[in-house]
Design goal:
Order of helices and strands: HHHHH
Number of helices: 5
Number of strands: 0
Distance between the termini: 81 Å
Helix content: 40-55%
Shape: elongated
Strand content: under 5%
Structural class: mainly alpha
Length: 109
């Protein structure tokens, strides 16, 4: 007798559920309880998929799923609140050439 597979076989959250999942993905992270750090980590995406679809994935499985959907990891750029772009541009134009010249490679010999 050949096995018929699992009785509770589920296809997963895609492709039929992708629309709902993407809408929740784009929604404010605070709505899902992540107020202080609003980045979407694999663990958080795993929890969201389990909550929305009742399907459990490992974080690695979620990474494969996201890759198939065309998503890629992004890390936000952290910049100081006091950052002054004009002052930085002035420094790069006036000071950096002098500093760069001091760090010229030493010629062998």
């Amino acid at each position: 007798m050949a096995s018929k597979g699992r009785e509770d076989h589920r296809v997963g959250c895609c492709p039929s559920g992708c629309g709902a999942w993407r809408r929740n993905w784009i929604a404010d992270r605070a709505a899902h309880g992540w107020v202080e750090d609003r980045r979407w980590t694999l663990t958080r995406v795993t929890a969201l998929i389990a909550e929305l679809f009742g399907v459990r994935y490992t974080p690695r499985g979620v990474a494969y799923l996201l890759r198939r959907m065309g998503w890629s990891p992004r890390v936000p750029v952290h910049r100081a609140a006091e950052r002054d772009e004009e002052e930085i541009a002035t420094w790069v134009k006036e000071v950096w050439p002098n500093v760069k010249e001091l760090w010229r490679p030493v010629e062998p010999g």
